[in-house]
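From the pipeline queue, job 12 of 40. The input is one protein chain; the requested action is below.

Action: predict structure.
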Amino acid sequence: MLSALIWLPVIGAVFIALSPRSSPANISRWLALGCSGASFLIAILLAFQFNALEAGMQFEELLPWIASLGLTYRLGVDGLSLPLIIINGLLTWIAVYSTEPSIQRPRLYYSLVLLLNAGVAGAFLSQNLLLFFLFYEIELIPLYFLIAIWGGARSGYAATKFLIYTAFSGILILAAFLGVVWLSDATSFEYGAVNTQLLPLGSQFVLLGLLLVGFGIKIPLVPLHTWLPDAHVEASTPISVLLAGLLLKLGTYGLLRFGLQLFPEAWSLWAPGLATWAVVSVLYGAF
């Protein structure tokens, strides 16, 4: 069921992209509505089968991939990721439904929206640090084109700025993940196999700092936020909905999943500064 949340939108995107140009213009729209709606229904089914009294991951899936890199295809869902998976399906369907039927290049547009849905779902479900990073970077590509092609007058500038900021965010996150695995002598990037409690507190503090800045760009926190006003203004309304409702959630999710849960001791040291940073961001936004 978890793999279906990722690969069903991918299959739908391929079907839409390969559909004949002579087919009716609304075929792509209806296919996208069907795929996103099916993903949302699967998420709802997961919610009904989810045991809220059970701690840890549920519905886990594991497929060995590149053993030499410690990369496995491990998926799981818990109480932190389940609501986000539901929101991903719902907002994607809303974005597709609210798109103008007369939109230009509909096959490319709806394919990219479904690929964005798949990338976000994969990031929320990944239980391997390297797999999370791959999905975190994959969702960059469709969103860049969705802003650049169907955005406003300065969409090219806004999309490029978004790409640069988020790529730098990914570099910091990857550096932190590599440091976690190498310094802890872990044999893989499996989330459950990494034991950060054995690391010196100073190393934990630095690694968590990399994650705070990396995910802080995605949230975004002031002064790492300057890509967001441009992206929101230039993006079309449906894409702006996905940007605010889904993409920004990846930053906070990453902080909680990989920051707070992997480095609880270092988090207590960062917490006063992080709280101050958050307040400054809120007040800055209000002004």
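Job complete. The first strand starts at residue 58 and ends at 66.
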